[in-house]
Design a protein that fits this description.
Layout: E1 3-7, E2 10-13, E3 18-25, E4 33-39, E5 46-51, E6 57-59, E7 67-72, E8 77-82, E9 91-101, E10 104-110, E11 114-119
Parallel strand pairs: 2-11
Antiparallel strand pairs: 1-3, 3-8, 4-5, 4-9, 5-6, 7-8, 9-10, 9-11
Length: about 120
């Protein structure tokens, strides 16, 4: 019964900030790789940021320098701090737990998604 519960989405003006949270239950959070994905209308779902169990991070080129992924293992929670938001950041954002399969990461569990809308 792995469950990923997201919060923090909403409407913000361009240049503003939001912090998304993902609370994880039903799995050993501290050993899992995690990630944030997003999907805009008419576009494929894309990886926004990823973090390993050891704290190594990776970001999509479009968000580098603006977004920060982090995790608090004591609270079983992952975060995405989003600064300097742009209208093109508008999307449904998804929390995901990742597993390595045949040498690459695949998503094992998805959160429900939370809408982020950035107005110009």
């Amino acid at each position: 019964q792995v469950q990923l519960v997201e919060s923090g989405g909403g409407l913000v003006q361009a240049g503003g900030s939001l912090r998304l949270s993902c609370a994880v239950s039903g799995s050993i959070f501290s050993i899992n790789a995690m990630a944030w994905y997003r999907q805009a209308p008419g576009k494929q779902r894309e990886l926004v940021a990823a973090i390993t169990s050891g704290g190594n991070t990776d970001y999509a080129d479009s968000v580098k320098g603006r977004f920060t992924i982090s995790r608090d293992n004591a609270k079983n929670t992952m975060y995405l701090q989003m600064n300097s938001l742009k209208p093109e950041d508008t999307a449904v954002y998804y929390c995901a737990e990742r597993r390595i399969r045949v040498g690459v990461y695949e998503v094992a569990y998805w959160g429900q998604g939370t809408q982020v809308t950035v107005s110009s």
